[in-house]
Each structure stands twice: as C-alpha cells, then as structure tokens.
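Page 47, continued from p. 46.
Same chain as before, 156 aa.
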Amino acid sequence: MIVFDLCCAAGDHRFEAWFASSDGFADQQARGLIACPICGDNEVVKAVMAPRVGAKSNQQAIVAAKPADAAVANEPSPELVRKVIAEIAAKQAEMLPQSRWVGRDFANAARAMHEGRAKEDLIHGQASPAEAEALRDDGIAAMPLLVPIAPPDAVN
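Result:
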C-alpha cells in the first residue's frame, strides 16, 4: 500500500488517499474514480509531498516521549476518530440509495429545484468548486459527501 497527498484541480483542498500501487492511483485517476472529499471534484492530482525516510539502521531515531497521561486538550483519540468516520460512512451509505444520481448536472438540478422549476428531490452528483460556491452564494443548500464515492457509471 502507498499513501499519496492529493489535491483537487482548483488546488484548494488537500487530502491523503491510500492505493495498492502508483499504477493503481493512475488507473483510478484515469477512470475518474477519485474525488475530492471536500468539494467532490474528480479532477484530482498528486500534491507535492515530503518523503518519509526512516533512520539509518546504525542510528537510533530520536523520538520525543510523551507521558501516557499527557493527552493534548481537544485532541480526539484515534479510536474516536475512526468511530466517527465509520458512523459518517454508514449514514452516508444508508442515505445514498434514497437519493438520485444526477452526475455533472448537480448544480443545474439543485438550482432548478430551488427556483421551483423542478420537483424537490434528494440528489447527489458532481459539481466543480466554482459551481458549489455559486450555489452557496445563491443560498442553495448543498454540501459535499464526506466519504468519496465512485459515480455509478464508473463502477463495474
């Protein structure tokens, strides 16, 4: 497994993702299966990242030891973070089947419902960062999915 720092095409959102290999990333990127978890943009590229280099085998790594009881205030435990992410993913998986996929037409469909030109419905799809910002500026409720999904037409 390999981890890459990624960012959406606008470069506004940076996030990490794990892949089986560098070729696995390239394949998923070419098929549009990788999306920004913040804005949903699927034009994602590798971001510049510093490599993780271990200490030489003949040198001991210097690690600042932190007493077990010296937890940083307001810092959630890794277990709590995993639990919250799992709950978010489960709720999203429960809600998606009740929602209609509109693909790249998300901004237009949301605007049509807001303006009364289309029946109110639960929808999900893709919008560029500029489209998402325009929806927000016009008072149209929309938010990114917190757990990225592959578009239905891209799934085997």
